[in-house]
Amino acid sequence: MVVFIFSPASAQPTRSPSRHGGELVLATTSDPKSFNDIIAKESSTTIVTDLIFEGLTTTNAFTTQVEPNLAQSWEISDDGLIWTFHLRRDVRWNDGKPFSADDVVFTFNDLIYNPDIPSSARDIFTIDDKIFEVEKIDDYTVRFRLPVKFAVFARGMSQAILPRHKLEQAVKEGRFNFTWGIDAPPREIVGTGPFQLVRYDPGQRLVFVRNPHYWKKSPEGDSLPYLEKIIYLIVPNTDVGLLKFMEGALDIYSLRGMDYPLMKPLEQKGNFTVYDLGPDMGSQFLFFNQNSGKNLKTGQDFVTPYKLAWFTHRDFRRAVAHAIDKQKIIEIVHNNLGYPQHSAMGPASGFFYNPLVEEYDYNPDKAREILASIGFIDRNTDGLIEDPQGNRVEFNLYTNAGNTERLDIAGIIREDLERLGMKINFRSLEFNTLVSKLTSSYDWEAMILGLTGGIEPHFGNNVWMSSGQLHMWHPMQQQPATAWEKRIDAIFTQGVQELEENKRKALYDEYQQIVARQLPLIYTVLGARLYAVRNKFGNLKPTNYGGIVHNLEAIYIKEEYR
Fold first, then answer.
1. Going along 21-173, which residue ranges are E strands?
2. What CATH number should be reported for the domain holding residue 63?
3. In this structure, is residue 340 part of a structural domain?
4. In this predicted model, what pLDDT tens digit does every residue of 357-367 receive, in sequence order?
């Protein structure tokens, strides 16, 4: 048996008048879709829930090693199938109620594994259709029995834990999916995290205050968090965010490449610092709706059949990939502070990144040649191409309003595709409306979106498994629609059970090669992670993995700025 034991935090909390107090003002371009972390599928929700909820473990932003959080230690059986977590005894929910093993068991058994709740986490914590057995040993001990070895189990225990005492009745009455929506009173949202939501003004702001019951202490024994308040201003677009920062209304601004020449020379005069953390860990991509299903209410196909034939044809997607001018995107959108992306994982992912995948150079002539080889030509000399049946190649392309970089990328891609003779009807939608199309109604044809990315491939399980709820081009398949999707399913099932790191890498290298070859997502470029931050904050320790405020509870306002 392997035993992991970690040192407890400092004993008695104290108040340090030189560090406690003040606020941090950030910006977001979208209202949250929900305050319910379990059913969240979009970053507009998780920027809220990440401040409120915590998991049993966390990942060190510097070393990327797994560390204790709500669990102070754990033990693993010799066969790797039984994990016993010993919970901290000093944790309270922000309403003052004690945190216990009941909350952990409830989160898994009643929420994540509840078939009536659309939780993406279920995809991650299910292997070969087998779930984990989760049981309470005593008030501060929880045991997980795994059906197979699970290589990333400790890291996966960063899964947010939700309070049984607040949500159990909603589950029993079958209304959990509508609980903690954006109409919920903010103080009803109860978590163990460093901050709690106290106000939400739609289209204007989200306000959080420090959780007075938060369990973490500084090395000096100070009660954390130091900051009294976090405010997210909801701005219509990134341009407004920039103006707000320049006016002094924001404390941190995530720069676009185009902002760098403006902002960098103003550092000293503006009393802020620009940080370049390297390639973005996320991704931006174009993809097509390959969903062959029908709307059960109307009986209509989600995608017009002849368009579905285009989108499911690999050569059609290959042609599109060759038509996208990535270097132009880097130059115009990112001011040359960007990187072409070819693989499903980017270089910031570290160990599991595979740079040796098929690449699609910008080559419009080759794109036209590929299209012509499958019968897509301009038959009536009107400047637009038709498919072999004479249908004009025309489709709707969506992305989210407010994200000016993504809108600019969409504009360039639209021009690139129109040069091939396609007619592109571009639409920008409010982010949560776009997500609803993607995950609920499926009434879309092409989209440009992004994913946040990470260092562990398995946590993209709900995107890459054919049954995944975020398998965006064709979600929740009963059986894999293609042989390559079946192979990716097998890779992810095998990869998470393989404990030898190099063997895991070989599997995930193959998955990235398949994605690059089949192009369900056609990747564009990675931006640099750039931030402008007011110089008034202490304890800033930015990393590429963690970003600027990964240690938010420890950040404080320097005495000279009070």
1. 23-28, 57-59, 66-68, 71-76, 82-87, 126-127, 130-131, 133-138, 141-145
2. 3.90.76.10
3. yes
4. 999 999 999 99
